[in-house]
Amino acid sequence: MANDNTTKPTKYIFVTGGVASSLGKGIIAASLARLLQARGYSVTNQKLDPYINVDPGTLNPYEHGECYVTEDGAETDLDLGHYERFTSIPTSQANNVTTGRIYQTVINKERRGDYLGKTVQVIPHITDEIKRRIQLLGSKKQYDIIITEIGGTVGDIESLPYIEAVRQLRYSLGYQNTAIIHLTLIPYMSASGELKTKPTQHSVKALLENGLQPDILVLRTEKHITEEIKRKVALFCNVDQNAVMESIDVPTIYEVPLKMHEQHLDEVTLAKLNLPTVQEPDLKDWIEFVKRVKNPKTVINIALVGKYTELPDAYKSISESFIHAGATNHVKAKVHYINSELLDERNIDEKLQGMSGILVAPGFGFRGVEGKILAAKFAREKKIPFLGICLGMQCAVIEFARNVLGYADANSAEMSNTTKHPVIDLMEEQKGIQDKGGTMRLGAYPCQLTPGSKVQQAYGTEHISERHRHRYEFNNEFLNEFAAKGMKPVGINPDSNLVEAVELEDHPWFVGVQFHPEYKSTVLYPHPLFVAFVKAAIEQSEQSEKQ
Ligand code: GLN
């Protein structure tokens, strides 16, 4: 919107959290972005993570959930997935910054001698680098508004430099160009039947001690917040009463933008930023989507076979993709998490019984791989719709080599260095790489699809681009053997000849993809592969009902 006028200053919104972690700052930040975008503003979301890892790429998914990958190949926090799913705007490396990355930059500068003999300190050097990273997103004048979420909880030692950087930025950018939204918890004490505001008051005090006055408070709560409570919070936290919002538990996170709009979060924020509330937000498609999510015509069961099943956040983008694709198909695609480490010949019938689709998840290392291979075999033989993503595709390839091509020892070079049939092998460009961080084949690559294949039909085009995160690949030495027996390569990278997608002949819908379609599914643009997979699963479920 305001891109036409480069003299207008970029506005910055900071989202902080207090009282407890996991209150859903990412969802609030993404919801606000969606609302402002629906009003015609160009917006982007950024996440600052206070941990010392340079990026979450080396983290076990049990630590912070899934590692999300951007177009430009950044391995990022899963909140960036929410941002993209809500706004349909691609994020990039600049949208996620960690303490590790900040320190790495500062220390590299120190080694180069850039600080000219000065003592390098948290203030000003670390805080300056934080400010630079925040403003970097605004430097091209591409966005009217940048929403920066500060990870962690106010009061944490490790978030202090971020809070200080925000304080300084408010001062230098001007208060009319910045807004602070603080998300806190209002606990309900069932013994006394009361909602308690004291933790929120303390949390705002902690912010004030660090020199930050929030403009807007969003209160997470299980019970509705009365006007009386809002008045009390407003009075003791120095905010306007109309700037105290309730964020009550809702059946789907996609309802949050609508709930926030009902309470005028978008208008109040724009007013704080001195921006006009130009137009009512156009939320027609969003409302329709939420209606479909809440009122599915039927439920279909999908098995998600993976090894991180105790923490559904480990597969966040996949489970969200099913919500999008379910809504498109007017069904609820219910995801059942099946631990691949516990899956074996004896229990597979029972564990996968009643599943209309089987998804074998991405992953690393040999743990749980045999269970994934078994799940691919089950789907192939029982003709159940199948989608294998990254390691999931690799498992389908190994299974086919073992049981159809007859190579009993077939494996991926990741799992075995003695196999005579490494049908999945280390990519040439990966040989010799020692460092684990940021060294995989990452980000968007083009792919050429075979006309008439199921994958091509799903996309409706022959040229696609999808995001990657892997070191191993389909071994082209075996390509002809696979194709001759019915596992066809249907997606090829035109530059490197790498196989990016395979599918089975003589099967209703059996697809393996080396890339990660789940990273690109959004509310307004559900991913075509998930849509087609869910459609095949619906057909499967209708057929098994007839039998
Ligand atoms: N471990 C496999 C590889 O590196 C698959 C990675 C993944 O599933 N993201 O190739």
Tell me briefly what this model is.
With 547 residues, the protein is of the alpha/beta class.
Task: Describe what you observe in this structure.
With 547 residues, the chain is of the alpha/beta class. Strands 13-12-14-15-23-22-21-18-19 form a nine-stranded mixed β-sheet, with helices on both faces. Strands 5-2-6-1-7-10-11 form a seven-stranded parallel β-sheet, sandwiched between helices. The longest helix is centred in the last third of the chain and has 19 residues, at 528-546. 51% of the residues are buried. The mean pLDDT is 95. The structure holds glutamine. Residues 362-364, 390-391, 414, 469-472 line the site of glutamine (GLN).
Descriptive key words:
18 helices; 547 residues; globular; alpha/beta; seven-stranded parallel sheet; nine-stranded mixed sheet; binds glutamine
Q: How many angstroms separate the termini?
A: 56 Å
Walk across the major sheet and give the strand order. 13-12-14-15-23-22-21-18-19
Describe the oligomeric state of these chains in a short phrase: single chain
The number of helical elements comes to 18
Low-confidence stretches: none
Write down the overall geometry: globular
Sheet/helix structural class: alpha/beta
What is the CA-based Rg, rounded? 25 Å
Ligands (ions, cofactors included) = glutamine
Strand content: 15-25%
Please give the share of residues in helix. Answer: 25-40%
- Summarize model confidence as the mean pLDDT: 95
Largest sheet: 9 strands, mixed
Number of strands: 23
